[in-house]
Fold each of these.
Amino acid sequence: MAAAIALSCAAPVVAQRESVRDLLAKASARGYGAAPVVQMHTVERTAEFYASGRMSYRPDGEPIKLEGVNQVAAAAHRARGAVLCFVPVEYESQLINDRELITEVIETMGASRW
């Protein structure tokens, strides 16, 4: 079964506050407003505020940072649908090129994608 992944990438530090809010709004407009938010190869701290209640945390209270496509696919499988994934642009091809995933790029911000 293919898992749907909507990509989001960490924006440059200067634009993070605006970008995360705006990018989550764009994702919501595309039907991902209730989708769990995961992060691959990054931790986007402002997402904790703007995606409150949609993120997963380690037992120590820190956000979970996924380290590979298989972990993102497993998160989508557990969610029984799509997840919204923040990922640095240099790693987005790992998700886009995976044959088991259906991936939609929501937005590109600077050197990063959402």
Amino acid sequence: MTSPITLAIALRHQAEGVYCLEAAAELLIAHQTWLRRADFTSEFIQIGPGLIDQRPMAIVDWPAAITTLQAGYLPCSGGEHRILLIAASLAERIPVDLSEVLTGLDEANLDLIAATVLHAGGHRPLGRP
């Protein structure tokens, strides 16, 4: 299994410069669950060298991940389920019902979502280029 740190770096490289992709990547990284799950990373994330500078790039197959999640073949908690749906919606425009996914999230996850929305809108957190 590829380490979560390597996956995080590769996701950031792939998303660089596209706010919604950056926000989705940062949400997965900050949530600290999905990038540690071999059933998710080995099945739905591919890593390869970038075309220009050979930096590692990671691509998530969001439609396949969400289809598998919705079919019940990617078991997880309700919060983990909601986080993955929100990340997929930002990255791939997969529809999500905000009134459904925001209800029931704890304060820590709501804080992550608030930061994610700000990032998607172009307001990167301090310290991040």
